[in-house]
């Protein structure tokens, strides 16, 4: 062997680069999961608010609808802190649905009640 022989260095380079690319790929997948959960919770809140604002529905119907949507799309752990209420702003009644859900940090697991989303809909007179 000569003094600058680098035989076997390609294997080490491959392992280091492959590990870095794998970590970056997993981080990208986790970001996609977080965005999916966030968008699903926001959609469930706004859809439930619109459903509860219908003429023959109540706040309990809106809360049940949000829980059903979350359980169907994400699982039981995401439908534990759902609330619905009717508020009034400048003489207009508004159905408001709020959801507190876990923010997924590793897979779908993460600290509970750290993602808060709410949906609003006008209640027709």
TrEMBL record:
Residues spanning the membrane: 14-37
Record keywords: Membrane, Transmembrane, Transmembrane helix
Organism domain of life: Bacteria
UniProt entry tagged with the keyword Transmembrane helix: yes
InterPro entries: TadE-like_dom
TadE-like domain: residues covered: 8-50
Record-given protein name: TadE/TadG family type IV pilus assembly protein
Lineage: Bacteria, Bacillati, Actinomycetota, Actinomycetes, Micrococcales
